[in-house]
Hints:
The protein is mainly α and 538 residues long. 74% of the residues lie in helices and 0% in strands. The longest helix has 46 residues, at 407-452. The radius of gyration is 23 Å and the shape is globular.
Amino acid sequence: MADTPGKRAGTPEGPPAGGGKQPRSVRVVLLALMIAMMLAMLDNMIIGTAMPTIVGELGGLEHLSWVVTAYTLATAASTPLWGKLGDMYGRKGSFMTSIVIFLIGSALSGMAQDMGQLIGFRAVQGLGAGGLMVGVMAIIGDLIPPRERGKYQGMMAGVMALAMIGGPLVGGTITDHWGWRWSFYINLPLGAVALVAVSAVLHLPKKRSQARIDYLGAALLTVGITAVVLVTTWGGTEYAWTSARIMELIGIGVAALVGFVFRQTRATEPIMPLHIFRNRNFTLMSLIGFIVGFVMFGATLFLPLYQQSVQGASATNSGLLLLPMLGAMLVTSMVAGRITTNTGRYKIFPVVGGALMTVGLYLLSLMDTDTSRFTSGVYMAVVGLGMGCLMQITMLVAQNSVEMKDMGVASSTTTLFRTLGSSFGVAIMGALFNHRVQDVMAEKAGALGSKVTEQSAQLDAASLAKLPEAARVAYQDAVSSGTHGAFLLGAAVAVVALVAAVFVKEVPLKGAGPKAADAPADGDDDTATAKAPVTEAV
Length: 538
């Protein structure tokens, strides 16, 4: 093929955003991308608040967890496929297709007449959601040079914070005033705006690859990811960790993933080209992204639980309880992005972020029944500062480590690792938390304590209020002990992110602004490593 790598990669026609692209056009596209990103992140937050009402109308309480699991599975399994489709056939078309599928799933979910239908339609919605986040990241990677991309980190972090804080509030409001079906229908006008804006304003070169999609590799990866997510979802809850069902899933998952890796060495157009992992920075960023997902979703699960159970906070405004962490994350992400854009330097942020995240999680592990809301808020802010240094930098460096033609798979792989990290974080920290709570309750409240937590170690506010005084005090002690273990584990895992960050090599950001010409060439060997397979392919 005679095209140059840059042309073949699907870069936008004309100058990039930082130099000549019409600002209004870029702003409209970015607004549409942020709406799509918010849809992907907001959905589970809204639905979580509406679930009691949904169960009350549709029944099927025993299948409740599948409403979330089906969505999560479909999202995780489809993420790598969307990234590869964008690389092969064009980013714009695949992104718009994912929006349409997501909106169809949303409309069907809102019309569901029983729990079985809702679970199936949520899977359809999840298939579309898998392409939303990847599409946003990859299109930004196409439109905006890495050096300039830092300026938009604050915008993406703001959308994330807005979804996590506002999701439960919006979900509760919609369910109370419009009914639970509008928790799904609300996606339709927002998605339509994003779809129209992307269709009208986004202009990327059309691509049509002659290679066939690696269907066998896609199937093996889907089976492997599905097994991993089911193990982390069911382990310790639906089934004991040592049960035959969990062991079977582990065996299936390992076999499928080993088969997938082998297949990627043979496929003409692999779903996840293994050569991207030859780049040290990309591999390190995938690892750090996994750990950020592990820590972040574990923290967002147990912090509200601690504040509601131990500090007596209201469950209604549970999203607001995370404001110190999310606010700090937002501010730090904006500052890190500006500094990265102005200097072209970024290694300091993963290192500082890993250190702050480790310290913050250790501080959270020190919380007990006497810890004030102000103190816990300060501890959360330290964690937020660390995550703010890491959240968007991981994607920025990962994209900078690959050729433009692999932008989609780089974005989807990094996103997938973060998703898998969140699954492992919730499962492992949750198992440790539940085990500790049940042990302390049995120790301090005897048979009553064991009875209280035999179904679940996590009690809602109504259940907690009905407990005798002695049992309630014992439960508060148990939750404090459980969060201590969970956050101490999080701190130990965060140390791995800090060590990984130390080994990151500061390669000059591609497409840099005025200072690009002065950027040192000390990272050329890593850049060349990423480019070598592309050169051979061309």
